[in-house]
Write a structure and sequence with these properties.
about 0% strand, about 80% helix, Rhopdopsin 7-helix transmembrane proteins, mainly alpha
Length: about 230
């Protein structure tokens, strides 16, 4: 049963990452958020295939999994997420050079940090991951408040709860193992994959709510809403 729940959670995250990542690019031209969710979904796809093939820790796919993990935990679902959401909170539109630069930074961070996995110094990057998560959580709390302020109660509550769950996952990841979990940490990954998929879904709904409010109040050009109206 646990293995089935794990596969369902991973499939959910893969679907949410690709589906809502595409909608963010197609509807809002938000390549920062869209591509980051693509990376999360690709990571989930690699993780699922690796697990189905037996979970060999000497497999190249295993090291790819930790590269994606390091990418998203260091830069992706932190700096890139915040920059992407600032499109609707501060009308921040980075140049293509900035878009490319931040993903290059994520690649460099991922390549550098994944080498610490399985070594005694893993506590160093693990602490770094928790710190950057805490910083991004502060912004996400502000993001939820902005939603509440425009009376988007459902998205505001959803974003706040999802952020709290993601923070709990970040703390549990390296420092607080779930009692009774197996060696593969199946229970943890069921909860983590489900939460990461919820982030793609809930933050998309919240982003859409703030975008529509911005259009209604004249903060965003009405022309930006044309593609949204057709969906």
């Amino acid at each position: 049963m646990k293995n089935l729940l794990f596969m369902l959670a991973d499939l959910w995250m893969i679907f949410a990452g690709f589906f809502y990542g595409w909608k963010l690019i197609r509807q809002y031209h938000n390549y920062l958020l869209g591509l980051e969710w693509f990376i999360v979904a690709t990571s989930g796809s690699n993780f699922l295939v690796w697990s189905l093939l037996g979970g060999d820790k000497h497999s190249f796919m295993y090291f790819i999994a930790y590269f994606f993990d390091a990418f998203s935990r260091s830069v992706g679902v932190s700096l890139i997420l915040v920059m992407g959401l600032m499109r609707v909170t501060h009308r921040y539109k980075p140049t293509p050079a900035v878009d490319i630069g931040v993903f290059v930074l994520g690649i460099v961070a991922g390549l550098y940090l994944q080498q610490f996995h399985g070594h005694g110094f893993h506590v160093v990057p693990a602490t770094f991951y928790v710190v950057v998560n805490a910083i991004s959580t502060v912004f996400l709390a502000y993001f939820s408040w902005r939603l509440w302020k425009i009376r988007a109660r459902g998205p505001a509550i959803g974003a706040a709860l999802t952020t709290a769950a993601a923070t709990a996952i970040a703390l549990t990841y390296d420092f607080f193992p779930i009692p009774g979990d197996d060696e593969s940490r199946t229970i943890f990954y069921i909860l983590a994959l489900t939460t990461w998929g919820l982030q793609a879904f809930v933050y998309y709904i919240a982003y859409r709510a703030l975008h529509r409010h911005n259009v209604a109040t004249g903060a965003e050009p009405a022309s930006d809403e044309r593609s949204v109206a057709r969906t």
